[in-house]
Write a structure and sequence with these properties.
The strands form three sheets. Strands 2-3-4-1-5 form a five-stranded parallel sheet, sandwiched between helices. Strands 6-7 form a two-stranded parallel sheet. β3, α8 and β4 form a beta-alpha-beta unit. It contains 15 helices and nine strands. By secondary structure, the chain is of the alpha/beta class. It folds into two domains: about 190 residues, P-loop containing nucleotide triphosphate hydrolases (Rossmann fold, 3-Layer(aba) Sandwich), CATH 3.40.50.300; about 120 residues, Orthogonal Bundle (Helicase, Ruva Protein, domain 3).
Length: about 350
């Protein structure tokens, strides 16, 4: 079940998938979580959930309920905010998990808002008793914040047998217990759509404890171009209109032909732009004897990407749809060797 994801990681590595607005890090740190979420590219389902949650938390009804129950010396029944994020690589799941910690702290659902990130494999121990204690320890560490379980589908060991299944069953059982009984905790489970759906269906107790299942949609081509613009600003580069048009055509072609399980969304844009900038630098190195009249002209030459740079680059090499042998011809103008997955 997990071969596709592991092959993707071999191709791309485990890189950041943050795609947001063109702001420096200090300015971002000063913004509220909901402002950061609303400034991100795409993320439509997430934005709807987050804005509704903030509106309810700030509404008069919530405040009246809290005041009434305080006067009655009664405790409020805490709403569980556990979340599943289903999305392909490069759709921003890790970034979102960190923003959710800040969001729930700002709305009063969490006391600290920090994020403890683990993979699904880190929840299982070396022996059965160790597994339960390992989950308890991680939950204790995450109290007041978010326990973010990436690749959570690993806990669903389809086709496994013996102790392997017992370890994962015990991890899920203890996790469900914590999700039910810990007030100051949000569990966010993330992974690619097929694996997460299998995990949800593997245990009837899990859907009852998860409040939101959010689809992290693949980016559209216009959204990928917005990410490109963001990346250009970060790298202090500009691209002329002809080159931009060709990039858009190449990304559209790649998105249409690459196997969706390997489509890296924002990661494709990042790596494609890296390839383009490498070609730009090669071009400049070959023409370094051209006269430069002033510093402004030099800066503009160093910053500007032109159409030949795009023609000599290629979109990252990913398997195409229906290609059973695992090979893919890179999309672009520059010939490259076939790469096995």
């Amino acid at each position: 079940m997990h071969e596709t994801y592991e092959a993707y990681k071999r191709l791309y590595g485990d890189k950041s998938d943050t795609w947001g607005s063109d702001e420096d890090s200090d300015a971002k740190d000063r913004k509220s979580a909901i402002d950061k979420i609303n400034a991100m590219i795409g993320m439509h389902a997430l934005k709807k959930m987050a804005n509704e949650h903030v509106a309810n938390a700030n509404g008069s009804v919530a405040k009246l309920k809290e005041e009434f129950l305080t006067q009655c010396q009664s405790s409020m029944i805490k709403t569980r905010n556990h979340i599943v994020l289903k999305g392909n690589p490069g759709t921003g799941k890790t970034t979102v998990a960190n923003l959710l910690g800040q969001l729930f702290m700002e709305t009063g659902d969490l006391s600290k808002g920090h994020v403890v990130q683990v993979s699904g494999s880190e929840l299982t121990g070396e022996y059965l008793g160790h597994t339960k204690q390992k989950v308890i320890d991680l939950v204790e560490k995450a109290k007041g914040g978010v326990l973010f379980i990436d690749e959570a589908y690993i806990l669903f060991n389809k086709g496994g047998s013996g102790n392997s299944n017992l370890y994962e069953d015990q991890a899920i059982a203890q996790l469900l217990n914590s999700m039910e009984n810990e007030d100051d905790l949000v569990v966010v489970m993330a992974g690619y759509p097929e694996g997460m759906q299998e995990l949800i269906e593997s245990n009837e107790g899990l859907p009852r404890r998860v409040r939101h299942i959010i689809d992290m949609e693949d980016y559209t081509v216009p959204e990928l171009m917005d990410i490109l613009s963001h990346q250009l600003v970060q790298r202090d580069h500009v691209i002329n209109d002809d080159a931009r048009m060709l990039v858009e055509q190449q990304l559209a072609l790649a998105k249409d032909t690459v196997d969706p399980k390997f489509w890296g969304n924002g990661g494709v844009v990042r790596d494609y732009l890296t390839n383009i900038i490498e070609q730009q630098e090669l071009r400049l190195n070959e023409s370094d004897n051209l006269p430069i009249h002033n510093e402004a002209e030099l800066r503009e030459r160093l910053r500007t990407i032109i159409i030949s740079d795009v023609k000599n680059a290629s979109v990252p090499n990913l398997p195409k749809k229906g290609n059973r042998n695992g090979y893919s011809q890179p999309i672009g103008f520059r010939p490259q060797k076939l790469v096995a997955v």
